[in-house]
Amino acid sequence: xxxxxxxxxxxxxxxxxxxxxxxxxxxxxxxxxxxxxxxxxxxxxxxxxxxxxxxxxxxxxxxxxxxxxxxxxxxxxxxxxxxxxxxxxxxxxxxxxxxxxxxxxxxxxxxxxxxxxxxxxxxxxxxxxxxxxxxxxxxxxxxxxxxxxxxxxxxxxxxxxxxxxx
Length: 166
Known about the structure:
The chain is mostly helical. It has one domain (5-165). It contains 7 helices and no strands. It has helices at residues 5-20, 30-42, 48-53, 69-85, 89-112, 138-143, 148-165. α1 packs antiparallel against α2 (30-42) and α1 packs antiparallel against α5. The longest helix has 24 residues, at 89-112. The radius of gyration is 17 Å and the shape is globular. It starts with a helix and ends with a helix. The model has no long low-confidence stretch (mean pLDDT 92).
């Protein structure tokens, strides 16, 4: 997925904020929740820096630890424990929203990218649809694949939500 992650994160986080608006959440700042939701929507792709600057594009970046679900389970579990220990409800909510968006990111990557959902228990790559290599520049293979329409739809829905708000 190239352009759909942040749109999906925006849609998801706005939906969560709508649910939270019906609860007693005066201590939560919607801007903070939205910020952490959007960060979570792209957080696994921070490994792109390592991919280009250090690894010299030697390995598919979906194989790095930032695309391993168990890694995120461990990180978010530690933050949740911290939030309960110090009774920080806002930290708990922002962490949950960030975690939901990280796992949404991994799910969306599974559509045409390889994600090792069971690692370290299995090296099995999971992918829903294979994108054939027919174009010289690898990016065009994804842009001209029918699944890219899903990314465009996510962007249009996000734009609609933004426009509807104003």
